[in-house]
Design goal:
The chain has 14 helices and six strands. By secondary structure, it is α+β, with helices and mostly antiparallel strands. β5 and β6 form a beta hairpin.
Length: 310
């Protein structure tokens, strides 16, 4: 099994913590901006609106709170806000479950015990063994900050030889935004990029004081215009399930279903698996990659193989 058992890489340069108050303010503002009066059953008198979306007073009316109270909240002052008020605002803004959770994380942050540095993420030995025994399905464990922690040979055959990368580069955000070969791998690269940013936003809401996350966001903001644009939307999303279309350099197009299993003993780690419909060309292609095993990566060394070039 390919894995990153215990990262020996030096910690990333410490970045300044994300400003939770600014994050709360921008999140509420962007959610309010995407709604129009007619979307929520309010009359639109056709008057010129200086800002897009609902006004603060309209949102406050829908949530059943005073304008002054909502204004303080949108300015980042969520101190002592009740869960009932947050629920009312979430309903008024028509937030998704993930967005509602993100709002709660920002407005009522949990008190985390301060550590001098972020601990390395550990994957249980039995789980590593389980992933190693799955020899026909690409599988890997993803952790905080979209880090890729452990993976099996099939994941390497499909997504690239991550063991050839420095440990700090075994990270989906860096792969998607900083390595052009992954633009070729994902048929809908824009959607994959958007998903990654939304996952990072959820992580940032839970851990705004994580210096490694702040450093990652800072690095990507400097190096990728696409990342800056997507980060500014403040959209959030939980990992779930769906379909990914890939264009593999050795076996061509793949249509794979993916499933995400959050670990019972560590909610910050998820097992992600990919499989093809039985009898489909994609299933045949996966069997071919499985028969090649580790040779699949070496066989594609002359092609622009994702993940091979450090």
């Amino acid at each position: 099994m390919d894995e990153q058992p215990e990262s020996t890489a030096e910690p990333l340069d410490t970045g300044r913590p994300l400003d939770r108050r600014a994050e709360l303010s921008e999140f509420l503002r962007t959610r309010r901006a995407r709604l129009q009066p007619q979307d929520v059953g309010l009359p639109d008198f056709g008057r010129h609106r200086r800002v897009p979306g609902l006004r603060r007073e309209e949102l406050a009316q829908l949530a059943g709170v005073s304008v002054a109270y909502y204004t303080r909240l949108e300015q980042g002052n969520g101190r002592n806000v009740s869960s009932e008020v947050l629920d009312a605002i979430a309903r008024a803004l028509r937030l998704t479950d993930a967005e509602s959770a993100h709002l709660t994380h920002l407005a009522k942050p949990k008190q985390h015990k301060k550590r001098q540095s972020s601990p390395s993420q550990q994957v249980r030995g039995p789980l590593r063994q389980l992933i190693d025994t799955i020899d026909t399905v690409p599988a890997y464990v993803s952790g905080r900050r979209t880090d890729i922690l452990v993976w099996n040979r099939m994941a390497a055959a499909v997504f690239g030889d991550w063991s050839a990368l420095p440990p700090q580069d075994r990270n989906w955000a860096r792969l998607v935004f900083l390595r052009p070969e992954y633009r070729d791998l994902f048929v809908d690269w824009e959607q994959k990029a958007n998903d990654i940013v939304m996952y990072l936003r959820m992580d940032a809401g839970c851990h705004p004081d994580d210096p490694r996350l702040s450093a990652l966001v800072g690095e990507l903001s400097v190096k990728s215009e696409e990342f800056r644009r997507l980060w500014a939307t403040h959209d959030v999303k939980e990992k779930s399930y769906g379909v990914k279309l890939l264009h593999h350099p050795l076996v061509g197009d793949l249509t794979l279903n993916f499933e995400t299993f959050r670990l019972a003993d560590d909610a910050e780690q998820s097992l992600i698996t990919y499989h093809a419909e039985p009898g489909s060309p994609s299933a045949d292609a996966l069997r071919l990659l499985a028969s090649w095993g580790t040779d699949a990566t070496r066989a594609g060394s002359s092609a622009p193989r994702p993940g091979l070039t450090p």
